[in-house]
Amino acid sequence: MKNIINKINFFGRSLSYAFILGAFCLLIMGCQNQANQSNSQADAGATVAADDNNTALLYSDECITEREVVEAQKMWGDGIVRIGKVFSENGDYSEEAADFIQNMYGYDLSSVLFKPTLASNDQFRSSFDAALSYFVGGNEAYAEDNGFAIKPYTKVKFDNVGIINNSCRMAVAMGNYFFTDTNGSETKVEYTFAYVKDKTGKLRIVAHQSSLPYNPSPN
User: Fold this and answer.
1) How far apart are CA 208 and CA 117, in angstroms?
2) Degrees (nearest 5) of the Cα angle 174, 178, 179?
3) Among 122, 133, 156, 176, which is most buried by a count of CB atoms within 10 Å?
4) Residue 23: what are its φ and ψ, rounded to 5°?
């Protein structure tokens, strides 16, 4: 009888040890699952944060004001005059134009929709090089370009018919701008510009369409 009791006690202790060991294993597995879930959530959060940071690196969170649009338009006009002046003085006008495009347009931020006034064969200039060719010429891929900005001009005046900035992150301006050449002749051109604000607070053009006013044929 004593042997039977000892065997029962031994069996009971074994079951207790097995139960404790199993519970311990379940506890460890549960902790690991929670850790994996936490890591996954942390990774997901890090990815979202990284995306937010990348967006923040490109664009400002500040809304665009009408005054900023007007100031950006003046900078654009001054830049066109400056390119022509460097050309007239036999300077590096291509580099001047490249800096102008880099500062004024958003080719490094996103796609840019650019339909310049005097482009007919290659109407749309979606790349930096295509835009540069329009302003200064010299690119065999765009044989029609004579260099719009090296005419040269002495003055550029914007006359906005309206500025829309109620979407906050983008502003659109439309109207006429007037280019005065060295002979004093003035050319009126119709325009639509769309602006975004980069991380430094500078307005950058992401859409630019311009054309000469409609001139109906005489009857």
Assistant:
1) 10
2) 135
3) 133
4) -60, -40
Query: Which token pair is 51?
Result: 């995306």
Cα distance between residue 165 and residue 39, in whole Å = 42
User: Of 187, 89, 82, 93, whose CA–CA distance to 136 is shortest?
Assistant: 93
Average pLDDT value for residue range 106-120: 96
153-164 vs 170-181, strand pairing mode: antiparallel
Q: List, in order, residues 6 or more apart from 16 with CB less than 8 Å away.
A: none
Q: Which tokens hold the place of 54?
A: 């990348």
CA–CA separation, 114 and 205 (whole Å): 9
**How many C-beta neighbours within 10 Å does residue 116 have?**
21
pLDDT at 80: 98
Question: Does residue 152 have a cis peptide bond before it, meaning omega lies within 30 degrees of 0?
Answer: yes
In angstroms, the CA 141 to CA 143 distance is 6
**How far apart are alpha carbons 142 and 156 in whole angstroms?**
25
Collapsed DSSP state (helix, strand, coil) of residue 58: helix
- Alpha carbon distance 211, 171 (integer Å): 20
Both structure tokens of 212:
């000469």
